[in-house]
Design brief:
By secondary structure, this protein is mostly helical. About 45% of the residues lie in helices and about 5% in strands. It has a domain at about 15-60 and about 70-120: Uracil-DNA Glycosylase, subunit E (3-Layer(aba) Sandwich). Helix 2 (about 40-55) packs antiparallel against helix 4 (about 75-85). The radius of gyration is 21 Å and the shape is globular.
């Protein structure tokens, strides 16, 4: 560490080698992201984006529905992490519909995934934003949600 004229402590200037290594790592990560985008997970996520856009285009629900949670909008980051991690090869599984539940997918963006299992067992991470309209009794706490689904 070095002291500046004002007395502040500053870190030494990074070596050119370190910068080259960082640039190479960034280039490799970008190449992996592009490769992955063309892979099964990338295609699956693209289909989900298209279906999600089609759902958003539907007319709004009327009474008695007061709140609609769209976890693929506000919890896309952990959802896409889950898909990229676990949707690498073809599977003989088809989800026709998923009941998100107030303490499962509605919190995490992961199908059938309550927060503890998503975070600790599946090792999925990512930021969960607040939905535009939350029911006061069903706040979205994301991966820190302490409640579990009862089903």
């Amino acid at each position: 560490m070095e002291a500046s004229a004002a007395g502040a402590v500053t870190a030494p200037v990074a070596k050119a080698e370190d910068e080259d290594e960082e640039e190479e790592a960034a280039r490799l990560m970008k190449a992996e992201d592009e490769e992955e985008a063309a892979g099964l997970a990338g295609r699956f996520l693209q289909l989900e984006r298209e279906q999600n856009a089609a759902l958003r285009a539907l007319p709004p629900f009327g009474a008695p529905v007061s709140h609609v949670y769209r976890p693929l909008d506000y919890a896309w980051e952990p959802h896409s992490h889950f898909v990229r991690r676990y949707c690498r090869t073809p599977k003989r599984v088809l989800f026709l519909g998923i009941n998100p539940g107030p303490f499962g997918m509605a919190q995490t963006g992961v199908p059938f995934g309550e927060a503890w299992h998503v975070r600790e067992w599946l090792r999925v991470a990512g930021a969960v934003r607040k939905p535009p309209s939350e029911h006061p009794k069903r706040p979205v706490l994301g991966l820190s949600c302490p409640r579990a689904e009862v089903s």
